[in-house]
Amino acid sequence: MALFNKVLASVGIGAAKVDTKLHSGAVYPGSKLEGIVEVRGGKIDQEIDDIYLKVQTSYETEKDDHKYSVNGEVARFRLAESFIIKANEAKDIPFAFNLPLDTPVTIGKSRVWVSTELDIKKAFDPSDNDSMKVAPNKLMESVLHSINDLGFRMREVECEEAPKWMRRRLPFVQEFEFVAVSGQFRGRLDELEVVFFLESDNAADLFLQVDRRARGLRGFLSEALSMDESTITIKVTSDDIPNMSSKLQSVISQYI
Question: Entry's Pfam families (predicted)?
Answer without folding.
Answer: Spo0M
